[in-house]
Amino acid sequence: MFIRTVSLWRKNIYRHWQLYCIVALPVLFLITFNYVPMIGIQIAFKEFNPTQGIWHSPWVGGEQFEMFFGSPYFWPIIKNTLLLSIYALCIGTPAAILLALALNEVKNQRFKKIVQMFTYAPYFISTVVLVGMINIILSPTTGLYGQLSHLFGVTNVYDILGESKAFSSLYVWSGVWQETGYGAVIYLAALANVNPELYEASKIDGASRIQKIIHIDLPAIRPTIIVLFILAVGGLMSVGFEKVFLLQNMLNLSTSEVISTYVYKIGLVNTNYSFGVAVGLFNSVVGFILIFTTNVLARKFSDSSLF
Amino acid sequence: MEKAKHIREPWSDRVSIVVIYIFLSIILLCVAYPLIYIVSSSFSSSAAVMSGKVWLFPVEPTWYGYQAVFQYQQIWTGYLNSVIYTVSGSIISVALTIMMAYPLSRKTFMGRKVLMWALLFAMLFSGGLIPYYLVIKSLHLLDTRWAMILPGALNIFSIIVAKTFFQSSIPNDLYEAAQLDGCNDTKFLTRIVLPLSKPVIAVLLLWAAVGNWNSYFNALIFLNSEHLYPLQLILREILVLNNVSTNSITLSPEQLKQFEDMKTLLKYSVIVIASIPVLILYPFIQKYFVKGVMVGSIKE
Q1: Closest residue in chain B to residue A112, using alpha carbons only
Q2: Residue among A128, A241, A277 whose CB faces B239 most closely
Q3: Is there a domain that residue A168 lies in?
Q4: Same domain membership, residue A158 and residue A71
Q5: Residues B183-234: pLDDT tens digits?
Q6: Which among A117, A247, A281, B173 counts the fewest CB atoms within 10 Å?
């Protein structure tokens, strides 16, 4: 049996050797940039010393983790990370669904196209430019926001950018501005696949527009919602570095420091490699567990799942 | 059928559609206004911008902001670098995607299950930032142009999209027929699969290009020399860190007085200039991204 399989393999490789040659290069990339870094995870359990390298640095066991769990930064950054991602999920998802459902009702194609064109566009603005725009527009002195406040006679303008309490809202609502149009596209694609006979039948049964949305449209996009939800939960621990890092300043650091920015600062800026890897590993493992559990739950309670 | 169209909608439906139109108009306004404001301000005089006279259209139209951008050497170095990274990075990325997705889509390729799992695992779990950085360091890619092109070239999500597309739209019979005519695996890829996959390749190219153009993270951690910086890092200096360097612009004493004014306008115009490439691609993006999203959502 074993010998037969081996000879089958040999025959297959002989006939399709070109396929294996084609795949070799991307596999090399996969190994180099995705799997070789995983070897570096062991630094988390070592006292990394650049002269000794990854392999020869001395083992210290869970010391780095104890240090992280005991550090005064532990709870604040976990709290900030989860708060930002849950807030973003709770506002972002309904916003995209709402936009898609509303657009789906519009019969005037020109209006629909214009709305889509504009709401879709901000997604392609870079994070740097987005944060630049936020800084310009929300500046309490020269910005549009500041000038509007003056216009309404507010003398002591609330500084959104420098206020730690406002950070999460700033992060989430700028995200809504940027990503809702893009998010809606996926739901619109799912809505386009609804069998039109369902709408006709509901019309004959006297369903109102709202009833139609609740009983036909929402069930139609349910699988999409679930898959995107699983992905989002898997990403709860990994709030995007790019935007948070750019929005950070000395004034809002108490609410804006998240795991990824902390790893960057501790690990790369302060070159405390072992500690940085330990924090990063903690983050990856929790993220991995989260996405698996949600997937199992989704499979159990609905018929859609990611894998 | 014809008659069904003439049924008068009940009043509740007519109210709800009005509400929907109003809702969408408000959203349109909220999304579009900041964009219009930035563009209009970039063409206005700095005095008008500073004193809040710009609401919708440019006030006291000038080109000063754009002149400042044109004189700012670092922006153009960054622009050129970004073009280099985007073009080469996207081409390499899409080539790798196809080279991985094509064998994965073929039933005659053994080990595709193992490889698929290896890809999925890599998508969900990673070594983290620092091991990644150390690998790039040990490959001596730090502070080179290659660091901007190679590490991010393999995009697992794109591979899955391409694989799904190949599987669903290129029938196995076609391969068998081609094989009978003496077509080998490589020829089948170049002569049949690629010509049939033009739309999906366009999507992947656009995806990669927009991603490369807009990203700054790899540049932030891998680059030290300013002459290698992509545009986004220069923009970060100007827009976020508020560092506008005077030595890159040659200023006469009276110009120095206007420097502060220029600095304000520069921020608006540099946003417009930096977004032009994406703006040019936008019609194609609109056409193809939606298709890409659809392809990605097809489940096996």
Answers
A1: B24
A2: A128
A3: yes
A4: yes
A5: 888 888 888 889 888 888 988 998 899 899 998 999 999 999 989 999 999 9
A6: B173
Which range (A43-47, A138-142, B149-153) has the least confidence?
Answer: A138-142
Range of the structural domain that residue A290 is part of: 63-301
Please indicate if any CB of chain B lies within 8 Å of the CB of A6.
no
pLDDT of residue B300: 37
The answer to whether the CB of B74 falls within 8 A of the CB of B245 is: yes
Q: What Rg value do the Cα atoms of chain A yield, rounded? A: 25
Q: How far is B270 from chain A (nearest CA, A)?
A: 9
Q: At what angle do helices B198-214 and B253-297 cross, to 10 degrees?
A: 140
Is B221's CB within 8 Å of A105's CB? no
Quote the tokens at residue A218.
């929402």
Separate counts of helices (H) and strands (E) for chain A: 17, 0
pLDDT at residue B162 greater than cutoff 60: yes
Please indicate, yes or no, whether residues A84 and A50 belong to a single structural domain of this protein.
Answer: no
What residue type is A258 in one-letter code?
V
How many Cβ atoms sit within 10 Å of the Cβ of residue A151? 9
Query: Which residues share a beta bridge with A46?
Result: A59
Q: Testing the interface with A: which of B7, B117, B130 to mutate, by most A Cβ within 10 A?
A: B130
**Residues A23, B100: Cα–Cα separation, whole Å:** 5
Q: Is residue A269 part of a domain?
A: yes
Indicate the pLDDT class of residue A303, thresholds 50, 70 and 90.
Answer: low
- Selecting from B28, B99, B133 the residue whose C-beta is nearest the C-beta of A23 gives B99
- Search chain A and give the residue with CA nearest B94: A26
Distance from CA of A258 to the nearest CA of B (A): 14
Asked if A5 reaches chain B (Cβ–Cβ under 8 Å), the answer is no
- The H-assigned helical ranges of chain B are 11-42, 46-50, 64-71, 73-105, 112-124, 129-138, 146-149, 156-169, 172-180, 185-187, 194-196, 198-214, 217-222, 231-235, 253-297
Looking at this predicted complex, what is its ipTM?
A: 0.86
Nearest to B214 by CA among B278, B269, B260: B278
**Is B12 near chain A, with CB under 8 Å?**
yes
Tell whether A296 is within 8 A of chain B (Cβ): no
One-letter identity of residue B102: Y
Structural domains of chain B, ranges and CATH numbers in brackets: 3-70+249-297 (no CATH), 73-231 (1.10.3720.10)
Q: Which residues contact B80 (CB under 8 A, 6 or more apart)?
A: none
Nearest to B295 by CA among B197, B174, B191: B197
Asked if A217 and A159 sit in the same domain, the reply is yes
B109 and A23 within 8 Å at the Cβ level: the answer is yes
DSSP tag of B10 = P
